[in-house]
Design goal:
binds S-adenosylmethionine; about 400 residues; single chain; alpha/beta
Length: about 400
């Protein structure tokens, strides 16, 4: 019998039924629901219980007794320790299928949607060496440089990261050489780096590593940004992502909330008479302005503000909004933002999200207020991880 007593907690043999939001495997045994990390659906595994919360057990795999047909040998030597990639044990087809199931699960359970359109997922052209952005951690006590270990703030020392673009891997190797030579600034604990076609921008800047302006051409548009501004990590999927988020968008007035450096603002400004982008990071907002200026798009302006504040302050600025796009961070849109959107009654909403759970929470409110779910599309922006980008299109039915 599995009981919550002293350490060590018992081990169990279980079969993984499917993968859940968060990427964990679901299993049941002895009246408990188990969430098993780094599992594959169909695996029979011996697991160790790491933590109990009521009838829920959080577990990790000790031994694969019978591997799932979709299980593969994780190629990365840091797999299981590094917090970065938690889907390397799955073949690529199974990764894509699990991500669609994760979205469906959130829509059912969190948004209470019984029927929704078919979810097509766009695979990533590159399953490895796709990341154009990295956030590295440095621990001056251990001299470890890499990513946080799963569920902790211990730094996993990473020499080679298989999902980085080659330019970023070179930067990682250069920075590690500075640590070995004792020429790395001890005060720097966290490094952001982004790559474009010509080089790498890094923040903070020091000794030859500059926070320089870089640029990337996506479809017909050129975007400038730097390591201090947000830009999507997987550039190969951005043409279809922008297309899906803005297709058929027409009218006089469009809002682009959480606009970053203007990935969606620029194409929207080509179609609408008036576009407003709202972004709280001043560096990103400046790049968005620059990107609009370079494209000679005068119909759009960028507001540097928190979306919730701006929507509350400017309650009456727009009588009629035809199209509203929002692309918030993982936490989704705050209540004040959803209420501000509903107050403007946009005819169409395009919600771009990197977290199906918070998307579903927000979707529930928008559907309850009279929006209809037209389409859902998924983009595998983050291969080898459970993360997935979703674009949901809604139209007003009031
Ligand atoms: C997921 S990114 C999307 C950016 C852009 N749409 C893109 O695809 O490149 C979210 C953006 O929201 C910004 N942000 C975060 N919280 C915000 C807030 N409360 N108000 C305005 N912008 C915010 C971040 O700086 C970031 O640029």
């Amino acid at each position: 019998m599995l009981v919550s007593t002293e350490q060590p907690l018992p081990t169990l043999e279980v079969e993984i039924e499917r993968l859940l939001p968060g990427g964990v495997g679901l299993a049941h045994a002895e009246g408990f629901t188990l969430f098993v990390s780094l599992a594959a659906p169909g695996d029979v595994v011996r697991v160790q219980i790491d933590r109990l919360r009521g009838k829920v057990a959080f577990a990790s795999v000790l031994e694969v007794i019978k591997p799932s047909p979709v299980r593969v040998e994780p190629p990365c030597p840091y797999f299981g320790r590094c917090g970065g990639c938690d889907f390397q044990q799955l073949n690529y087809e199974a990764q894509l299928q699990a991500k669609v199931e994760i979205i469906r699960d959130c829509f059912h359970r969190i948004a209470n949607i019984a029927d929704f359109p078919e979810i097509a997922i766009h695979p990533s052209p590159n399953q490895w060496q796709y990341r154009a952005r990295a956030n590295w951690q440095y621990d001056p006590l251990t001299l470890h440089f890499g990513y946080f270990e799963a569920g902790s703030h211990r730094v996993c020392d990473v020499e080679v990261c298989a999902v980085l673009l080659p330019d970023l891997q070179n930067t990682l190797s250069d920075l590690r050489a500075h640590i070995r030579n004792d020429s790395f600034p001890g005060a720097v604990k966290n490094v952001e780096a982004v790559a474009d076609d010509e080089g790498v921008s890094m923040s903070p800047a020091w000794d030859g590593f500059e926070t320089k302006k870089v640029s990337r051409r996506i479809g017909d548009e050129t975007y400038h940004f730097s390591a201090d501004a947000f830009f999507q990590v997987n550039h190969e999927l951005l043409v279809p992502l922008v297309h899906e988020a803005t297709r058929n968008a027409r009218g006089a007035v469009a809002l682009d909330l959480y606009c970053g450096v203007g990935l969606f603002t620029v194409p929207l400004a080509r179609r609408f008479e008036r576009v407003v982008g709202v972004e709280s990071n001043p560096t990103s907002a400046r790049f968005a302005q620059l990107n609009l200026q370079n494209a000679q798009l005068e119909s759009a302006r960028i507001i540097t503000a928190r979306v919730g504040d701006w929507l509350s302050r400017k309650a009456s600025e727009f009588e009629a909004v035809d199209f509203l796009l929002l692309d918030p961070p993982r936490a989704g849109a705050e209540n004040v933002v959803i209420n501000g959107i509903l107050a403007r009654r946009p005819r169409e909403i395009s919600y771009v999200s990197c977290d199906p759970a918070t998307l579903s929470r927000d979707l529930k409110k928008l559907l309850a207020a009279g929006y209809f779910l037209d389409s859902v599309a998924a983009f595998d922006m983050f291969p080898q991880t459970h993360h997935v980008e979703t674009v949901v299109r809604l139209t007003a039915r009031f």
